[in-house]
Amino acid sequence: MGVEKLKTLEPYINRIVQGDCREVMRNFPSESIDMVMFSPPYYGLRNYGEATETVWGGDSNCQHEWSEIVKPKERGSYGESSWHRPGRDVEAKWKPQKSNFCVKCGAWKGQLGLEPDWRMYIAHLVEICREIKRVLKKTGSMYIVIGDTYAGSHCGRGDKTLFQNFRKLKVAENLYDKPSPQAYVTDYKPKCMMGIPWRLAFALIDDGWILRNDIIWHKPNAMPSSVKDRLTQTYEHIFHFVKSRKYYYNLDAIREPHKTVFRPLKTFKEEVERYVLAYDSKYAKQEYGQPLQGFVRNQSIARRRQLAREIAKELFPNDPKKQQEYINYIHDHNGHPLGKNPGDTFSIPVNSKFFYADLKTASPVARALKTLQNGKLTTHVKHEILDVGAYLKKKLKESGYSLDDLARLTGIKRTTLEHYFRTDSSEKALPSRETWNLLKPILNLGEYDDFIKEEVREALPHSHPLGRNPGDFWSISTKPFKGAHFAVYPLTICVRPILSSCPPDGVILDPMVGSGTTCLAAEMINRGMWEKLGYEPNEIARGIKWNIKWIGIELNPEYVEIAWERLKRELNDEG
């Protein structure tokens, strides 16, 4: 392609293009993309090979002369190659570190993510996002999946001398944003979390982007960590950026059913013994060696997972969902004999009184009570609400049942039921129609509409009829991938961003397509392959006729082949 921009995206639609995303996007017409979603190489984490080296900064017309600097041998390290993680980079394992700067114009040649200083990494991502902003529609969204890095343990990023030498080149003074004088003394000590995701977010905000959400991707099956002085990393960030205040967003397409107060049905004792308990004799067959609980101390995590997969297939040959549940269970219940590292995401129920709730953020019941307390309901409606509690309390007494009996018969938590039978405004709540109908035959209740009248329902806050906002905490398990790509996020990660931020006939771009996850998810949505996506859509999303176009860009030719083969393999399953 030439430098001149095309008037249409047609040559790129539903294709994976091999090349530098900056160069490829320069051919796109301005404001032609509806949504962008990608995950850049994380800073200092992996070496993707020389095929991914590109030139950054400098003069595009310069006949570059590169200076190679070899990292000196350090005490207690692996020598000149200490910046490589042994076992990670098999072919390039013992090559010296290269940090090539042009002595003429100050340009740098290397891989995104392996810059000698984090400032360069952030500057390179900002450069890419500026081109994304040009091609993104005013109504468009950009989602970035990114994780953090610890200093001192990753591909030699602790060496500051290379970047400092680069700064001394007069020709390079304006290539990268100069940090404040205080920033020069910000030298990360080993083991320090670097805060890379938020440094990128702040840099993009400074560059004119609007940050709408920091979505936490929690990994319930995150790999156990061998560290002993911090928590296991169990989450990554998904930043949602837009370029203008008004943009396309269809929240109704991703609304979820309101949470029910009912407990799940209890599992039969026989199923628990056969399926849940990892020490059951069924799992200790000779061909699997020791029982899973038995080889905790002397088998690797990878070996335990492999055995768990083999056993799961035998136990549930035609039920992939139960296979994964079993594998997850073994993952959660085997590890250090004293227990697993709890991870760095805590899900803790708030044990507070309803009246302490904020009117804008509380649950519907809490907001109703706050409204009641503030005197915004009429005295008549107030009495109506309290009379319901008195009526229910009377019928409970007549029935001879206790709250514990009701909890056992209905599956509703006792602590939830208590709020319905109160005769004062302290923590008083009204039952839903569904709850009333469960209690009706047990307590011999009258009709719901006779006791909870329309004026009462209208006076209290309502839940959205299409469901609740899913929130910014997504607990999604990672999925295994057999290809040669290191970092593959699960298909489910892409679904909510696509359904909410891409019009049904819009265009999605992944400028660092890797194994093709974003493109594959878009095409699966088009074909209604919800089960394979691992996502249960609501009626709004299921009723939309999706015809999403997608474009992928990938620098590494090997990954282009991997992505194409994956697309063909997964989509051909549907015929």
Helix-residue proportion: 25-40%
Tell me the number of strands: 12
Strand arrangement in the largest pleated sheet: 1-12-11-2-7-9-8-10
Shape: elongated
Which stretches of 5+ consecutive residues score pLDDT under 50?
A: 70-97, 154-162, 168-186, 260-299, 350-364
| Structure classification | alpha/beta
Looking at the structure, the CATH topology of the largest domain is Rossmann fold
**The named CATH superfamily of the largest domain:** Vaccinia Virus protein VP39
CATH class of the largest domain: Alpha Beta
Instruction: Quote the average pLDDT.
Output: 75
Q: What are the salient characteristics of this protein?
A:
Rossmann fold, single chain, 4 domains, 4-stranded antiparallel sheet, 8-stranded mixed sheet, alpha/beta, 575 residues
